[in-house]
Amino acid sequence: MAKIQGLVEPGFEGVGEAFARNFAEHDEVGAGFCLLVEGRKVVDLRGGVADPATDKPYDFDTLQLVFSTTKGFTAIAANLLADRGLLDVDAPVAEYWPEFAAAGKEGVLVRHVLCHQAGLPVIDARLSLGDALAWTPVIEALEAQQPLWAPGTAHGYHALTYGWLVGELIRRIDGRDLGTFVADELAKPLGLDLWIGLPEEHEHRVAPVIGGLVPEGAMEDPAVRKLIEDFIGPDTLLGRALTLNGAFDDNFNLPEVRAAQIGAANGITDATSLSRLYAGTIGTVDDGPETPLLSQSQIDAARVRQTSGNDRILFVETVFGLGFMLSSPTSAFGGMGGFGHYGAGGSVGFADPEHGIAFGYVMNKMQQSLAGDLRTRGLITATYAAIGAPPTFA
Questions:
Q1: How many other C-beta atoms lie within 10 A of the C-beta of residue 311?
Q2: Cβ–Cβ under 8 Å, residues 301 and 62
Q3: pLDDT digits (tens, 9 = 90+) for 147-163
Q4: pLDDT tens for each residue of 118-147
Q5: Angle (deg, nearest 10), helices 70-83 and 161-174
Q6: CA-to-CA distance for 114 and 22, rounded, in angstroms?
């Protein structure tokens, strides 16, 4: 039975029970969960094993790579610049990044980039892992890339390119690279263990990711293998989007990957910091800034639905605001006003301003999903039950 430690305030016992059930019923290996309500920590738990090879416990010192949950960090950073009047979401990207206008992209707006409508989910260039980790080669490839569709007319999940597109905008406007901006403007004020580009001195704290999006043994069945290859194979749009044409392929446990700045996919944090980030975005927290990171007007603008219809990469309807996933059947946050981001395999961070909720869940064992699974569904259901507001899974 998994060892679980941490805080459960009276009235939130059901949330603690849901966390424990994940180990008993849903193949959890090591995980962390934290819930803040109106800026106050009411649940903060760790459990299981960080590294099965060593039986190291998953404890309050453990850090975790969270895949696309990282996009929430990057989206908050972009919205912070917009809130300060430094980034106009209706301006052409080329106004801030002139080289981007090449190959027919002069009409791409910042808004298109933030809500996955830019038509740049993949690049034609074939880059090595070293190229991808170096930042500039990806930026140059995006500058040369022609959009796959007329920007603004459709949306398709920019699984990896989102991080470089938004990160380069931030760099051009502010002068700091994305990782430094996140460290200075988000992590430091709120006292977070949260990075895009992990410092070497924290590498030993990271729990390795276990498994992947393809179930173990699935490729042994020829029929199943064909289905998987048709959907997520290396030559499919989704496969190319998720791996940057193969540059990233089951290598996110490498220290050099965790140390790089991949603003869509390699954020490192823990559950407490993730929930505190969202709590500090919509309100105040203990020992944090006296005002929220974002104004109410910016939060409202960020939550306006920007997309409709099926996603050209994921083939299901995805709903995006300004950089954030919004609550939908694909990305259920419990409250219809929720915003945040899921990560491949199960992690999630989100805020629900109407209910004062900030939610952070991280884990090392990936399930076969790009946006949540039974583990998060159980935690969300228990959370809303505890506050007396049944969740709305839109």
A1: 20
A2: no
A3: 999 999 999 999 999 99
A4: 999 999 999 999 999 999 999 999 999 999
A5: 30
A6: 33
